[in-house]
C-alpha cells in the first residue's frame, strides 16, 4: 500500500512539472513573453525570494520549484511509512503465530530502513535547502516556527517507532494493541496541522 502511494505521488508531481514546462513553452511564443514569464515566476515564488540578486532569472525559479517538488514527494513517502508502521505493530501484538510474527518483523524492518529512514533524511535535507533559499525572511513568520515544532515531533515519533520495533523483536514490548492503534492516529493529526500552516500561513 505504501509503495503504491509513493508511486502515485511521484507520478502526480512529474505530471505537474511537465505541465509547468509546457506552460512556459507556450508563454515563450506569446507577445511580451519575457515579461509574462517573469510575472508568472514571481507569483509562484515565496515572499522574500526576490531579495536575492539573481532571483528574477528563470533557471533560479525553476531550481526552487524542483527542490520544493522533491521535498513534497519525500514528505509524502515519509508520511506513508508513519501512517503504516504502527498498524503493523497492532498486527504484530495481536498475532499468536510465530510464523506471522516473523513475517511482520521483516515487513517492519524493511518499511523503516528502505522507505521511512531515507524519506525522512531526504525530506529534511531538501527542507533545509528551501529554508536557506528564503533566509532570513522565513524566520519572521510565526507559522513556520510552529511547523518546525511539529516536524521535530515527527522525528521523535519516527525514533520511537524504531525503538518499539526493536522491543517487539526482543519480546519486551509492553504496548497493547489498543495503545498502538491510538498512537497510529498521531501522524494524521500532525498532517492536518502542518498542511494548514504551510498553505494558509495563518500568522
In terms of topology, how is this protein built?
Layout: H1 2-28, H2 33-44, H3 58-94, H4 98-133, H5 142-170, H6 177-184, H7 186-200
What does the main sheet amount to? none
Order of helices and strands: HHHHHHH
Separation of the first and last Cα atoms: 36 Å
Cα Rg: 21 Å
Short description:
This protein is mainly alpha-helical and 203 residues long. It has seven helices and no strands.
Molecular structure report:
Helix 4 (98-133) packs antiparallel against helix 5 and helix 5 packs antiparallel against helix 7 (186-200). The chain starts with a helix and ends with a helix. It has 203 residues and is mainly alpha-helical. It has helices at 2-28, 33-44, 58-94, 98-133, 142-170, 177-184, 186-200. It contains seven helices and no strands.
Notable traits:
single chain; 81% helix; mainly alpha; 7 helices; 203 residues
